[in-house]
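Before going further, learn to read the protein records used in this course. The integers have meaning only within a learned vocabulary of local backbone shapes. The record below shows the convention in full.
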Amino acid sequence: MDALDVITPEKLISLAEDKGKSFKSIKTNQIRNFFSAVISIKNKVQMMGIYFKENEVKSDLLFLKPKIAYAAGRQPKTVKPFKEFIDETIDAWMKAADKRKATKNFFILIEGIIAYHKFHGGD
């Protein structure tokens, strides 16, 4: 995956739809648990405003990896591909030079996946 600060909006939305569709076998409550952690991070970033703290965001995103690993350990067939994608997405954030833009794109991507998961009939 490209660094999250250089990915185009078109590719971001296309990726969100593709992944939302491919993860439709994941139960909504599993997605919701992960998504609530993402929303907490998003709210924290919004409160930072101009005082964006890259190291805090980095820590928060990295802590998502064990959270999703736990879910993948419980439901390996359905959640493991989602975990692998989330790990790849967090790694793409790490590669980004512009962390603010990468953070914004991270939230757009995750929210898009959730929307398309529901749209394509996710459980």
Remarks:
- The mean pLDDT is 90.
